[in-house]
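Worked Example 4.2. Read the sequence first, then its structure tokens.
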Amino acid sequence: MKQVVILSICLLLCSPFAFSQKESKDVRAGNKLYKEDKFTDAEVFYRKGLGKNDQSFEATFNLGNALYKQQKYKDAVEQFAKAATLETNKNKIASAYHNIGNSMFQAKEYSKSIEAYKMALKQNPKDDETRYNLALAQKQLKQQQHQQQKNEDKKEQQQQNQDKKEQEKMSKENAQQLLDAFLQDEKEVQKKLKEKQQQPSKKPPVEKDW
């Protein structure tokens, strides 16, 4: 049994109540709270269950779902990954990887999400819900890569424009410096010429004709 989780995109999350054969008292209490959307309280009871039996697939898996509901996706992945190692049942392992895929999807790590969905399908090739989520993740990855490329192109164009403006600014500054230097030299030349013109001319003495 799986349930639909309404988010920005609908993902099919494996229900925490799909595996109820070995539920402890604490896990059952957690499930009750989970159904009431009290995910933080449910987490407490799932952890209590794990405190008594840290090898419980049900407590580990359900804790992952409670964390997922609280948008603690990294923590949820850790629990689902652990749950996958506690079972040999292929359907249970597939469900754990399915929910790892969902967690990575919500974290926008689409490549890792795709890997997890593929792992789930290896365990349960007939799972159409996992196949649907896989296709969704692949589509999101393409869009993400396209957007990243656009952002990189935009950043590169902005850098090129900035470099061009700086070069133009430097060219203008160099031109102004050259002009200022020329004007200064011209000013010095005119000053010296003026000073020379103001000096009395020294003419040789005129010899008297005796």
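Now turn to a second chain, presented in exactly the same format:
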Amino acid sequence: MTENKAKVNDQLENEIPDLTEHLEESAENKKETKKDKGHKKTKAEEQLEKAESEIIELKDKHIRLQADFDNYRKRTLKERMELLKTANESLLISILPVIDDFDRALQILDMAEEKNHVSDGVNLIYNKFQEFLKQNGVKEINAQGQDFDTEVHEAIVKIPAPSKELKGKVVDVVQKGYLLNDKVIRFPKVVIGE
């Protein structure tokens, strides 16, 4: 039996190196397949990261496009509102001399001793014109006694100021000025005290 054991041991020793080599080879193969799988996984991860970055980039472009469109919509709406506000500007500017004539007519009628129906009619028409101008956003610029401002007033003449308080201020208004929705459509022509 000892011979048999010896033969088995010899045979095992001879086979063990083969088995160890085989085990080492299979371990190396497993490592290589793991590396290959890891490499494939890395490629998949790279593709996934690339796809995610493309998605993020597309989302960013989409958000920016939406913001640009929203800004465009707001800008065109604002321009449209500005256009509507000033659409009647030339018509309203053409009416201003008629208002000036009404002012002169009212001054003359106020100087008359008799009050009659004609002055009442002129006052009625004048008030309707004033109301029409207010409804369309036209306001008179109050210049009398104000500090002279080149942004708002147009100086015609400088005269010696009747008092110290009127130096650099508007002494008289020759022609009224008007605003259309806070935009000057006609500058008041004024006399300045110096």
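Notes for the reader: The chain is about 65% helix and 15% strand. The beta strands are 138-141, 154-159, 170-175, 177-180, 183-186, 189-193.
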